[in-house]
Amino acid sequence: MPLFQRPPLDTLTSAKDRWTPIYLEHGRIEVDDAAIKWIDSKGKTCPIPVATVSALILGPGTTVTHAAIKAAAQCNCPIFWLGEDGLRFYAFGITPNHDNSMARIHAEAWAAPRKRNEVARRMFRHRFPDVPTSGVSIEQLRGMEGKRVKRIYEDLGKHYGVTWKGRNYSPSNWNMADNINRALSAATASHYALIAAVCCSMGFIPQLGFVHKAGTLPFIYDAADLYKHETSWPAAFEAISIDPKDDGKLVRKILKRNVEQSRMLQRAPKELKALFDDLSTLQEPKPHPLQPKSEA
Fold it and tell me: Which residues bind Mn(2+) (predicted)?
């Protein structure tokens, strides 16, 4: 007799209606009394409603039993492993999805150069709707994006009264970064976990990116970039304006508030899916004089 009874598929909560991820460290996750529970380092226990949580984020000092992993997978609840202070995104556990249609659409768009570039342009238009993208190469759009991102950082620094000297940190030397760069890294790590939960639950393929190519999760980085300016970046600057020595707790608290206020979890599934709509009806674009033929 299994401890945890798999819930019927039609009773599982969809990604857009799930709670924000739960971050855990220094404790153990196991199944007991037909439910998943968390036992912290002091022996206190707390039930985890995996059927309604968008993801479990495991920090340092966390152990999890085989039965708990099985139960989380049966409830479509992704599990992620993050480094200390939320700086590094190490890995995630693949969540069984009941439909492979989104994965096939994703793969077909990525494999066709014109469709791949159109999805990338739609991602840019999502962030910068006032910028014309027709006939502009992906490299040119990346340059335009870089300038706009720098301007957003500067504006957030002025708005929250935080000294901003540029994005500068070393993943191998966390303590060398200044407070705002550490806060941005902490907020970004949690933001990646949240977006990864949405993408995996919908059946997207994390390894096939359209703007990002490097790393193990380029599509997660693509999708996360659509929302950073309204969630993780403001959370980091606001947290440092309140407590310059914040260790990440305040950043994550404000990030949670921003995610809820922006309704990102409700919007992301529909907006990500829309990036792939009607790709088969693409018209031949008028090439920009500087556009490489390989990107037409």
Answer: 145, 212, 225
